[in-house]
Sequence to fold (534 residues):
Amino acid sequence: MIRQRAEPGELRALDAGGLFELGKGRSLGRLGKFGPRQPPSRESAEGDPGAGVVEPASRSWLEMEFDSEALRRLLGKYKFRDLTVEELKNVNMFFPHFRYSMDTYVFKDSSQKDLLNFTGTIPVIYQGNTYNIPIRLWILDSHPFAPPICFLKPTANMGILVGKHVDAQGRIYLPYLQNWSHPKSVIVGLIKEMIAKFQEELPLYSLSSSDEARQVDLLAYIAKITEGVSDINSKNWANRENKTVNKITVVGGGELGIACTLAISAKGIADKLVLLDFSEGTKGGMMDLDIFNLPNVEISKDLSASAHSKVVIFTVNSLGSSQSYLDVVQSNVDMFRALVPALGHYSQHGILLVASQPVEIMTYVTWKLSAFPANRVIGIGCNLDSQRLQYIITNVLKAQTSGKEVWVIGEQGEDKVPIWSGQEEVTNHDSQMQLSNRAMELLRVKGQRSWSVGLSVADLLDSIVNDKKKVHSVSVLAKGYYDINSEVFLSLPCILGTSGVSEVIKTTVKEETVTGKLQSSASSIHGLQQQLKL
Fold:
């Protein structure tokens, strides 16, 4: 077995004695929110036969000299392996101690893929001392057009300090990852930002011996590389007191994002509203929003500005030049892969409200990527159509509905269908269907402009934030309703409040046409979802 020992002055990593200062053998003391809980202890690594030993994993090698051809063979299934090899050669120049291997990565949807990854340490200067932080980077097979997936790699005597840039499983979130764009984004730049951010907030601390047994369980969890829901909470981050009562984040500075911002501001729902804008230059109306400075609105490109939001609203859509519908949807999915995990990390107890299109599929994607419970991931669905239909029936057709509500349910588009609340006699049911069909004809001539969708989003937000327990037709997990057995999101009438969806209203619809349309929509949506790469 190959073993490589750190020489004096070299980086020491994965050592049983803790995190070691460069060349001095200093272990990292326990750190709290703003600094050491106790002074770092001085533990010499000199003479320790285990100090600095790095054990290679299976199918791995230590880069004594960078072997481009061996790496190129290893990356046989990578789409852009030549670009990847060239970039890793550059990484090796700056960080020659990194160890590379091919291992299986398990994604949130339980799919697996053999990916190149490398482990090693990065030097971080914190409060005058230099510490080696062990990390692991997974290189996706679409690299360099997709960012690496980054983790801390703590040993059994290291604890994770969950914070602005690290979650409880050790996954690392940085602006550099969120704004990744080839060719300007490179791994060396990513690591340099990682070092800079960790110098502001150190991500690891040394555990006492009494805590090590508990840490072993966490490490076993991390080793599986499954990024689902964790019951591990952080006293330093997740439970940090939130001074802002109603903080809302709108993701996307396009027309819909601006429309949502204006509608939410007009309703006075938010104490603070963050608009995350990723556009360049002076496109759209973002410059005007910045110039005229709406009260309580912050415009930012940093995802961490969204921290502790009660609701995060997704309005972004990919503007790629792909021709096929599947390619367009996949472009949106690729964008969400960079956004959703980070935004979910920053607002772990919030509601995710999806307005991006196609809303049913992007709500499903958000649910899968966030690992949030289904009641806290909601699509805007047919709320706008439902509110319009109710208005047309009552105010345009002047019909008496005896207090009964009507909703549009199903999939946005031609297959959406109207249903009525309550149980009706057959004669009354027939008249209601004639009325709703006539109203639907009037509804079809109405478009969905950004400003009208923005008003609908504000309506949903009002019900959620103010816990109104109002019924809305929104996209929710439809499995188990109308004999639907697949994991798809469709619009169903739901009661909304601060916990998201508190109840799905069970209707007494016996129309085979309604059930048939819902099942047909579910089948087509599920078929498309199966082709997406999450």
Remarks:
- Residues 1-64, 225-244, 423-427 have pLDDT under 50 and may be disordered.
- The first helix runs from residue 68 to 74.
- The radius of gyration is 26 Å.
